[in-house]
Amino acid sequence: MQGFVINTGQWVDVAVPGSIMLLGEHSVLYSQPAVACAIDRYLRVRLSGLAGRDVVVESALGIYQSTLDTIEDNPTHRFLVEILRRWRRVLTRGLHITITSEFSHTIGLGSSAAVTVALESALRRWCGFSLDHRDILEACVGVVRSVQGRGSGSDLAASIYGGVVGFDADSLQVQCLSNSLPIDLYYAGYKTPTVDVLARVATESAKIPDLVAELYRLMGKVTHDGIAALLNDDLPRLGICMNIYQGLLDALNVNDATLSGMVYGLRALPGVLGAKISGSGLGDCVCALGDTGAGLLGVERIPLSVSPVGVSVDVFSH
Questions:
Q1: C-alpha span between 249 and 114 (Å, rounded)
Q2: Which domains does the chain have, with CATH numbers?
C-alpha cells in the first residue's frame, strides 16, 4: 500500500457537483439503465493532517470526533465513517476534514453521493492512489452499498464524471451523453427518505411481482429511448420520454397529489418539453425540461444548470 505523498503544511481540496436523476428511478435497481445529471451546486471537502491519531470532521451536520484506531459509529456521518474505516490501515496520522456545501441535505441533490465521492477522492490523493474515475466509482459504490444495503450508483457516476450520463448499475458502465441541458428543478417542500420509499415499493410489489417486473422492463425501454434522444440532441423526444416515465412512476405508486400538481402545472407552461419526478418520489423535487419562465406560483424553484465537470482535486500549501 502507498503512504503519504502530501507534505506537512499542505492540504487537499476537492469539489464535487451534486446530481439529479432524469430517468431510471427505481428500475435502475433491477438491471435497467438510468440517466443522471451533474448540477452546478457543489460540495467541498478540505483534508489536512493532524500530528496524532485523531480524526475531526466539521460540517453543517455537526462535528464528528474519533481516532483512526476506533472510528466510532455515527448515524449522521455513516458514509464518512465507512470510508475512514476502509482507509485507516493506510493512514499514518490523524486528519482534519472540513465539509461545506452549496445545497442542503434535505433536498434530493445527491448530497450523500457527493460527500462520498469527495472524501474518497481526497483520501486517494492524500495517500498517492489513482484518481481514475472508474477506480473512484467502484470504491464509492462499495461504500454506499455497504452502508445502505443497496444503491445504484447513478448519482455517484454523475458527480464523478460530470455532465449528463447514462449508467448501468450492474456493470458500472458510464456513458457520457451531454454537457448541457435546459432543466429546471422545483421543490415540493417535503421529502420522504429514499430508503422508506424503496421499502414501501418493495412491500406493494410483493403482491404483484410479475406485473411490477414488466413495469421495470418498460421503464428500461423508456430510458433507452431517452438516452438515444440525448445522443441525437432530440430534446422534444427526451421530453416525451420524461412524461411517459412519470406515468410509470405513478403506476409504481410513488406519486402524490402535490407532485402531480407540480408536474401538470409545469407541462402547461409554453416552454416546457417534459416534466417528471426527479428521485424516488413521495416528495422532493420535480424536474422540467425546457424554459419554465417565471415558474410555478407558490412553488420553490431551485435554479441550476448542468455541471460539465465532475470531481476535481487540488493540492495547496501554506
A1: 25
A2: 10-179+307-317 (3.30.230.10), 183-302 (3.30.70.890)
